[in-house]
Amino acid sequence: MSPERPTLGHRMLGFVASGYDRRSPVALLLLITVGAAVGYRHSDLLDANGAMDWLLAGIWAWLAALVCWGVCLRRDLVLIAVGAGGGGVIEWWGTNSGLWSYFTGERPPLWILPAWPIAALSADRLARLLIWLVEELGRRQGPLHASRLFVGLYWVIVPGFVAWMTAFTWPTIHVPATGVVVALMVAVMAYCPNPRRDVVVFLAGSVLGVFLEYWGTSRQCWTYYTGQVPPPVAVLAHGFAALAFTRAAAAADQLLGMVSGKQVSSDAVAVAAVSVARTKAGSGLN
Predict the structure, then answer these.
(1) CA dihedral defined by 216, 217, 222, 228, rounded to 10 degrees?
(2) pLDDT tens digit sequence for 199-210
């Protein structure tokens, strides 16, 4: 009699647990250090009455759980650099074009910049979890990861976002930086090397964007020119940013590999990490 097949929930718990190792506490310590430094230097971000912001606490706990999972030093350092640089450019453009503003009036405030690499790492982790789930469902119920499905989804979701975001930014189209951003969005959209990864990363970043944007706009930490809390397109913008950062990090990682003589792409590292974690999860549950 063959052994009972582990349930999807069982395998997922094993997969998630296998992603935490001795590098996870180091990542947590660094994350706490960054958060404490921002909170200490910019105490006006905290409630003056000392009330607990449970939404903010929940977001930080969720991000910490993601960042500390599946740590890969080289891949993460590249993604941090890309997220910090790309986030800085996005914030400079958005605040100086008038699309959004912060309660401090800064363009942009320095305290928001560390949030971008943290969000980039979190979206990467969440995407890897979703890819595992898609593959697991495919093995159980059929080929959900079929390339045609993700190609179709990509050419509906990403061009739809680019069109929506272009309309959202149109009042500032006279600003040269806005024209450059629109052109970059079209260029990112037109190049689709890995539809499954791109769709999953876009969705992962957008999920994070729901909570981040609602917190920021509902607390009036930042305000969009439309006054919405938040504008739906701003939520999806986190998905597009995560997609762009992932591609840029993969290209930078390949370049570093060529320089060092080890041509191993970020995608290959991620696939290997998922495979190892899946093997550990399976061996521990069967």
Answers:
(1) 150
(2) 999 999 999 999
